[in-house]
Every structure is written in structure tokens, then in C-alpha cells.
Amino acid sequence: MKIIMRVTTAFLAAVSIIAVLSTVGLLTVLSAAAAADLPRKEPPPPAPPVGKAPIGKYPVGKYPIGKYPQPVVTKG
Questions:
Q1: How far apart are CA 24 and CA 52, in angstroms?
Q2: What share of the chain is helix, strand, coil (3-state, %, to 5)?
Q3: Which among 12, 19, 56, 69 is least surrounded, fewest beta carbons within 10 Å?
Q4: Are residues 63 and 69 in contact, defined by beta-carbon separation less than 8 angstroms?
Q5: Other CB atoms closer than 10 Å to residue 12's CB: what's the count?
Q6: Is the pTM of the predicted complex or chain greater than 0.85?
């Protein structure tokens, strides 16, 4: 009868250790998943290049299809 008590006690101790390790692992995974869902502050988008190119000045649609505007030749 004494051997049955020792085996049962050892078995319950092993089961309790497994339960504790499983709980710690589960909490670790859940906290990592919760941290992945938290919003992060992102840097603002880059400012558009104002004044770098003339807006609305490109001659789109002013020439027939297939024809390109002639280059401006200056004397100099």
C-alpha cells in the first residue's frame, strides 16, 4: 500500500508541474499575441514636393495622338 501512495504522489506532482508549465507557456503566447495587436505610432508621410514641378503645365491632350511637341530651338 505504501508503494501505491508514493506512485500516486509522484504522478500528481508531475501532473502539477506540467500544468504550471503549460499555464506559463499559454500566458506567454497570449501576451505576445496581445502585444502584436497594439497600435504603433508610425512616422508621418513625407511632405509632397511643393514648388518642384509646375502643376498643370504639362501639355497633356493638346497634341494629336502619335505626335510629340517640337523642341524649342533658340539661337544662341
A1: 58
A2: 45, 0, 55
A3: 56
A4: yes
A5: 10
A6: no
